[in-house]
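Appendix B, example 12.
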Amino acid sequence: MNAGRPHPPFVVTHDDLSAAVGFFNQLKAQAIERVKEEAMKSMNVDLDSFTGGGGGGGGGGGGGQMTKDEYEANKPDELRKDIRMISGCMDKQTSADVSNVSSFQLPDPAGRAGGACTSTLLKILYADEHVPEEDLSFTEVLEQMQAHLKRKGYSQIPQLSSMNPIDVSHKFDLVPETATGTRRAVMIGINYVGDDPGELSGCWNDVLNMKKYIMEVHGFAEENITILMDDGEHTEPTHANIISAYKTVVAQSEEDDAIFLHYSGHGTKLRDDDNDEADGYDEALVPRDFQSNGMIRDDDLYDILIKACPDGVHMVSLMDCCHSGTIMDLPYIFKGDGSSGSEMILDPELNLDAFIEQISGKLIEMLQKHLAGSFAG
């Protein structure tokens, strides 16, 4: 070694850096795949039951799809709760704000505007303050909603989703006969008064019309209904207040109780920040103070409403907002346009990463621990 001779400068080129980053990303991807495989084996899940084999990372375009029987055989108790949602449209669609709800023959409509989903559902279930003489099935309700919306010139497709497969030929009901306990509701209507653009005109009316229906037809008591509206009279539907109302109604409920959630306002899509969405986007509710306190993502709703929901509680949510098709991340869907056939199907967007995360609730922490151990060794 020539101590008197200076070493040449060490220069890292762009190509060198790219190669290094690519190498470490490859190592990380391989380590993640090993962890996933170990996690699935530890939960006695047959890896061969997943088409696409996981595909190297979250949100990967529908990889990890499984059959209904395989999903039902492997899902844990956390994913067997009685939770359902009716949404005004698919994730990629926007929901309409109806300018004159009198055309929907609602019972003494509380104003002249309302959301197309809420107004159409009430037209079918409670037109002129009368329930239908004959029971309607889930299929009939969704198909009638779709037909009426189409006649009115709306392209949105109503959708039923659930945690467990529902026989859609059975009677439609917001509250099943088995829910014999207390009936509670959280109802949110946001008109975004003063926002330009963005102000709506029908969301308060949606809440008031739906409140009348659930009280008179389903026996909800006034004291068990929480209303949030930006009308200056009710609790303001801020980010914090919405989260608090949802947490409270879940905490108050116990086996055999029923929860009805109604949201009428803006919905949106945000870039997925944890790689659990196949399309790369989270669906989100838009609280009144969204500009200062942000949106309420579907991941938040899942943690607050679904994970925390006590066993034996029946929950139904009516989401009358844009991009609401999978806003509660429920695995089974049935669309009102007939594209689902005659039964609920497993959401084609369900992927391996989301499945693992829902099972453990700790996928990120698990990956970090395993990766830290791997690189430390």
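Confidence is low (pLDDT under 50) at residues 1-13, 49-64, 90-114. The CA atoms of residues 337 and 357 lie 31 Å apart.
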